[in-house]
Amino acid sequence: MSEALTTETALEDKVATEAAPNPSQDRPRSLWSDAWRDLRRNPVFVVSGLLILLLLVIAAVPSLFTSVDPKFADLAHHYLKPPNYSHIGQADWFGYDGQGRSVYSRVLYGARASIIVGVCTTFGVAVLGALVGMFAGYYGGWLDSLLSRLTDVFFGVPLLLGAIVILNAFTHRTVWSVVVAMVLLGWTQIARVMRGSVITVKQQDFVQAARALGAGTGRILFRHILPNAVAPVIVVSTIALGGYIATEATLSYLGIGLPPSAVSWGNDISSGQTVIRTAPHVLFFPSAMLSITVLAFIMLGDAVRDALDPKLR
Amino acid sequence: MRGAKSAKWVAIAGVVALAATACGGNSSSGNDGKAKAVDPSGVFSYQSNEPQHPIQPANVMETGGGRITDALFSGLADYNPKSGKLENLVAQSIEQNGPSDYTIKVKKGWTFHNGEPVTAHSFVDAWNWGADTKNAQQNASWFSDIQGYSDVHPDKGSPKTDKMSGLTTPDDYTIKVKLANPAPYWTYKLGYSAFYPLPKAFYSDPKKYGQEPVGNGPYEFVKWNHNKDFLTKTYAKYAGPKPKNGGIDFKFYTTSEAAYQDAVSNNLDVLDQVAPTDMAKYHQDLGKRAVDAPQNAIQTIAVAEYAPAIKNVKDHAKFIEGLSMAIDRATITKTVLAGSRTPATGFVPPAVDGYKANACGEACSYNPAKAKQLVQEADGANASISILYNADGGHKEWVTAVCANITQNTGVKCDGDAKADFKTALDVRTKKKVQSLYRSGWVQDYPLNANFLKDLYGSTAAGNEGGYSNKDFDKLAAKADKAATLEESVKLYQEAEAALYKDMPAIPLWYYKTNAGYSENVTNVSYDTFGKPVFTDVEVYKK
Questions:
Q1: I need a surface site. Which of A13, B396, B416, B451 has the fewest CB within 10 A?
Q2: A residues 260..299 contacting B (CB < 8 A)
Q3: CATH 3.40.190.10 holds for B27-72+209-292+516-540
Q4: What domain range is A101 assigned to?
Q5: Measured between CB atoms, does A76 come within 8 Å of chain B?
Q6: Nearest to B530 by CA among B440, B426, B451
Q7: How far is A92 from A72, CA to CA, in rounded Å?
Q8: Is B61 part of the contact surface with chain A (CB cutoff 8 Å)?
Q9: Best mutation site among B335, B390, B403 for testing chain A: the one with the most A CBs within 10 Å?
Q10: For B274-283, which contacts have Cβ atoms below 8 Å and span 24 or more sequence positions?
């Protein structure tokens, strides 16, 4: 390992020397390339990254891993049949559930709902939170007061309780209604982080310089402030992503998340808990997948934080 | 009867059907072979819940108060616990003089628990009081067949009089009843709690009476510890068949899980209903003391005739028949429903007068090949259907299983359409917003086939929410209602039932069972078709 590291550093140094013969004119590496360099060497990032890549592939094309339809039920032969661990990749690998459906197939197909909810909620929360935080931090004054108080109001609503209220208003619930509910309630933390970060950045010299050169507000905000203030937002969002997946499972477990006919880990955990004594495998496999996924995203978030914001390490 | 109906739906949605019988009659002495001696004065405890209202027979609509009322009172007639047939109890005879004229003779020698004799007036006065708008009794609509009901219970405003003109008492032990419209099955309603007699003491202070009720039944009131229990003891001068025990302690439970735990540990003697979560293990836990008794209730999947998904199918009778044949009722009741139901073979449950074995025939038997063929012939193979259900009633599992059957056997896309609770689901049904199919349960008002047919599939019936209309059925039902005798009416209703299977307005799925049990302290516990234990038959072991 250490040898590899040395070689790599040496190589980079060589490249740097070649590209810029005059060290005084060497452009300092940006925050992003610095972070990327750190990340590549972090085993936590590599493991969680590979895991997430695998999960994304499963979510996108679950049929690569199983030919069994997750909704195909055969009550006559498979009612609550236990796993057959030697049948790797076959329908009965993880056993069958109360409806006679393959748990293995359901676990794979259930990934899609969880990943979509996790990724889309994170994206929505980051965009909404970052915009609110950026305007509040940049303009200050009454707009800041207004937006900050608004943030406080939403911050006061507990995520789970608020989501229950919002989701009950939907007559036809889909993945997207769950995403909307969680975005509406989840953006406040990002907004606060972004606001603080923007206030710090806007006082820096390069912003003053841009303004002196006659750059418009839009240009200053999106070309100068946003790229330099967004790092903490990315850190917070990646860590929160795992939490959103868990919340979706909780909501589905409570019967107000995804519709009961949807294939999702939350729904399967919900129906599995009633037979925990007679058929624990029905509960175990979706729960294990959920835990692994949440763990992978939280590990990724940790690694990204370490790279982007070493002070927090 | 609208009120009565929605109450029934609530009942079937989750809990147990409301009981309508007083007990008594027809008992078989039981002995399970144990050497323990039976104590005829022994008191047993029974799983119940705090009554919603004070005890007034015409105001009792839920299980808690219903079961207590049934123990405290005896009506003119009662249903046989096994067959559901109507048998005289306080009545000497009930005779039909014309399509809408009845003469009821009341037996002499019956008394209320305070010593007052039970006469024709005890009944007639109670019915008039119960029907009167001013008294706002929940079961008032049960009297609506009687002539003059609209005078004491107008839709709006105050009543013109407090007596129904259809009720007269020529002497102290004779009641003459005139109905507004012919209804040969009217006598079957007489077993319901609304028709119980009341003593004179009731009218002076109905509220106080409701806390310390005085009835004419096998058990008399001892003490009501609110939210804890309701104690009764055997009435020594009871004129009906003598109870085999010394009294009932109605213990109030807020969850059926807690009651089940108490029964398993012998702290509760007789269960009302095993909780869904305990269904899988109660046979194992209680052994021979577990009870599965048929209940007169049915689960169906009804068709919303107005829904585009159904209308777009070319031959929708054939389509529904195909769906029906795609459902493997035997396997689903055995596995997913843990044996708590019996596959249905028609629209009328077995212990109902007018039940015809295998009435539905081939259309209700599992035949995937024929199912697929029918659906294709009906031009419905590309259809997409959903089954509306309430998520609070434990229906999700079987809806999923039924949908899997349908999709795999016919190719028709099928999904459950869950509504949070029963009220929401019912709202969608009454507003005619169902997308294609909905689950529909029905518990008997009285064990007669008319109740399972006319009230659900008649073109103008309140229970017909799917918008089904069949002229042949309506004609036969109207004819049956005008029939001179009950037997004839029952027969005509069987013909009417046969007409239904030609269009399949609903898919019969399964009949309900009472899943209950009892402790080691009691024996000879059986349940009637309403799901109520036959109280007077229960025997308590000596301690």
A1: A13
A2: 260-261, 271, 274-275, 278
A3: yes
A4: 33-312
A5: yes
A6: B451
A7: 13
A8: no
A9: B335
A10: B274/B515, B274/B516, B274/B517, B276/B394, B277/A274, B279/B338, B279/B340, B279/B515, B280/A275, B280/A278, B280/B338, B282/B515, B282/B517
Backbone dihedral angles phi then psi of residue B234, each to the nearest 5 degrees: -65, 135
Q: Which residues of A210-223 are buried (b: 16+ CB within 10 A; e: fewer)?
A: beeeeeeeeebbee
Q: Does B280 touch chain A (CB under 8 A)?
A: yes
Tell me the pLDDT of chain A averaged across its residues. 84
Residue type, A247: T
The whole-number pLDDT of residue A312 equals: 56
Provide the 10 A C-beta neighbour count for residue A88.
8
Contacts of A76 in chain B (CB under 8 A): 328, 331
Query: The domain B78-208: what is its CATH number?
Result: 3.90.76.10
> Domain spanning B295-513: which CATH class is it, in words?
alpha beta
Are B420 and A256 a contacting pair at CB < 8 A? Answer: yes
In this prediction, residue B23 carries a pLDDT of: 38
Three-state secondary-structure class, residue B373: helix
The DSSP code for B33 is: S
pLDDT at A310: 64
User: A68, A69, A71: which to substitute to probe chain B, counting the most B Cβ within 10 Å?
Assistant: A71
Domain boundaries, chain B: 27-72+209-292+516-540, 78-208, 295-513
* CA B403 – CA B386 distance, rounded (Å): 8
Roughly how many angstroms between the first and final C-alpha of chain B, as a whole number? 47
Q: Do residues B402 and B332 make contact, with C-beta atoms less than 8 angstroms apart?
A: yes
ipTM surpasses 0.90: no
DSSP one-letter string for A211-267: HHTT--HHHIIIIIIHHHH-HHHHHHHHHHHHHHHHHHHHHHHTTSSS-TTS--HHH
Token code pair at residue B153? 């219970």
pLDDT at B12: 42
Residue A23 lies in a domain: no
Q: How many separate domains does chain A show?
A: 1
Q: Please check whether residue A167 touches B, CB under 8 A.
A: no
By the 8 A CB rule, do B423 and B429 touch? no
**Cβ of residue A168 closer than 8 Å to a chain B Cβ:** yes
Residue A9, in any domain of the structure: no
Residue B420: list chain A partners with CB under 8 A: 168, 255-256
Q: Is residue A11 part of a domain?
A: no
By Cβ distance, the residue of A72, A260, A275 closest to B416 is A260
Alpha-carbon gap, residue B55 to B474, rounded angstroms: 39
Pairing of strands B413-419, B384-390: parallel
Chain A positions touching B397 (Cβ under 8 A) are: 98-99, 271
Residues of A in contact with B331 (CB under 8 A): 75-76
Rounded Cα–Cα distance for residues A224 and B385 (Å): 55
The answer to whether residue A298 is domain-embedded is yes
Residue B461: name the closest of B505, B428, B424, B427 by CA: B505
Residue A231: give its domain's CATH number: 1.10.3720.10
Residues of chain B with pLDDT under 70: 1-35
pLDDT at A17: 44
Say whether residue B337 is in contact with chain A using an 8 A CB cutoff. no
Residue type, B75: G
**H or E, element range at B293:** strand B290-303
Q: What pLDDT score does B312 carry?
A: 87
Residues in chain A: 313
Q: Is B84 left (phi over 0), alpha (psi -120 to 50) or beta?
A: left
In chain A, which stretches have pLDDT less than 50? 1-24
Residues of chain A positioned with their CB less than 8 A from the CB of B391: 255, 260
Which residues of chain A make contact with B405, given a CB cutoff of 8 A? 73
CB contact under 8 A, B400 and A260: yes
